[in-house]
Design goal:
The structure is a single chain. This protein is α/β, with parallel strands linked by helices. The chain has a domain of 172 residues: Acetylglutamate kinase-like (Carbamate kinase). The protein has 13 helices and 18 strands. Strands 3-6-2-1-9-11-12-10 form an eight-stranded mixed β-sheet, with helices on both faces. Helix 6 packs parallel to helix 8 and helix 7 packs antiparallel against helix 8. It is globular. Bound molecules: aspartic acid and magnesium ion. The site of magnesium ion has 3 residues, from loops.
Length: 406
């Protein structure tokens, strides 16, 4: 007998039949003697529609009202699932975030969970009642509903699992686990049995869309065992866990990519102290997130090119900030390119193995793919390349690192 948290994403509760399917899965866990809390997303597409409503009625909408509107999708599914469970003879009740309460900070539309009170929940679960919790939402210090940012019900589930000291947090979705890379692009991608928190955190941050980044941070911090698995099959999924739990460590856990990148180059920036601060200070003030940066050493002339990347959504704002300061910054020209993709190889094995980056560079060179920017950390190497080479690069790298399925 275990205490488990089961989380179902939008496609898993996409229509009434699917909600009934979820109810059967939950019932199976209850029948096996487990105590269960379920966290649900809104039915697929619903949150997008609600976000569109807000944007249409008021482009500069009040974030508190936005949260009030977009949090409703989860309220619907939690109530429907509780009913579906009751139809199967399972005792269940729905919980909105504020009822538990799931307390968050006051950052409306991307709030952080600060505390979850579980006494009432636990008492009822111990009596055999399934708690069906609306994901994505909480209550802020202003006593109003907050939401946790898109994809936030993953974080609701992991936070609840941590608060309940659950044995596992099963994240049910429309894929059957975490893959070495995107199987829609690389047909030889393999499902991983296990992946470390760190690797999962890197892949989520570098473009893999399986889990919200914050949910992985939270799982790592609290040591919550997470399993990503399919709501449409009984196959075991991928366990996200500590490194020492993984016996057969591979060099790489996978290859991630993100098309949400744009490259900016400032041509002939003065090469003297304070220049980087003058450029990146105003960008950060304007909430532009800068990711990869390269600057060359100037050869004699005292000027050098500076290249960096931002998200596509931030590009226009970034260009505006820099053009407004052109005289001040003293660059000659600003070049921008949104046709780029960032490809990253990730693996904790890199800490103890040399030559990982070299394998990447040669594999890309062999295909004639030019590397525009490089950045590394302890467990990943990222390169920026032209977007049209995404598929080619992913396949070549997958083979070069020996990740292809047999
Ligand atoms: N329904 C919310 C969204 O679409 C939260 C979630 O599904 O995780 O972003
Ligand atoms: Mg999701």
């Amino acid at each position: 007998m275990a205490r488990i948290v089961m989380k179902f994403g939008g496609t898993s509760v996409g229509d009434l039949d699917r909600i009934r399917n979820v109810a059967r899965r939950v019932k199976a866990e209850v029948d096996a003697g487990n105590t269960v809390a379920v966290v649900v997303s809104a039915m697929s597409g619903v949150t997008n529609t609600l976000v569109d409503y807000c944007r249409s009625i008021s482009p500069m909408h009040d974030a508190r009202e936005y949260d009030h509107v977009v949090s409703t999708g989860e309220q619907v599914t939690s109530g429907l699932l509780a009913m579906a469970l009751q139809e199967l003879g399972v005792e269940a009740r729905s919980w909105a975030g504020w009822q538990i309460p799931i307390k968050t900070d006051g950052t409306h539309s991307k709030a952080r969970i600060v505390d979850i009170e579980t006494d009432d929940l636990v008492a009822r679960m111990d009596r055999g009642q399934v708690a069906v919790v609306a994901g994505f939402q909480g209550i802020g210090p202003d006593n109003r509903v907050t939401t946790l940012g898109r994809g936030g019900s993953d974080t609701s589930a992991v936070a609840l699992a941590a608060a309940l000291k659950a044995d596992i947090c099963d994240i049910y979705t429309d894929v059957d686990g975490v893959y070495t890379t995107d199987p829609r692009i690389v047909s030889k991608a393999r499902k991983l049995n296990k992946i470390t928190y760190e690797e999962m955190l890197e892949s989520a941050s570098l473009g893999a869309k399986v889990l919200q980044v914050r949910s992985v941070e939270m799982a790592m911090k609290h040591g919550v065992r997470v399993q990503v698995r399919s709501s449409f099959s009984d196959a075991p999924g991928t366990i996200i866990c500590d490194e020492d739990e993984i016996v057969e460590k591979e060099l790489l856990s996978g290859i991630a990519y993100s098309r949400d990148e744009a490259k900016v180059t400032l041509v002939k920036v003065a090469d003297r102290p304070g220049v980087a601060a003058n450029i990146f200070g105003p960008l950060s003030d304007a909430n532009v997130n800068v990711d990869m940066i390269v600057q060359n050493v100037s050869h004699g002339g005292g000027a050098t090119d500076l290249t960096f990347t931002v998200t596509k959504g931030d590009l226009a704002r970034c260009v505006k900030v820099l053009e407004d300061r052109k005289a001040d910054l003293g660059y000659v020209e600003l070049l921008q390119d949104a046709n780029v993709v960032k490809v990253s190889v990730i693996g904790v094995g890199m800490r103890s193995h040399a030559g990982v980056a070299q394998t990447m560079f040669s594999a890309l060179a062999e295909k004639g793919i030019n590397i525009q920017v490089i950045s590394t950390s302890e467990i990943k190497v990222s390169v920026l390349i032209a977007e049209e080479y995404t598929e080619l690069a992913l396949r070549a790298l997958h083979t070069a690192y020996g990740l292809d399925a047999a």
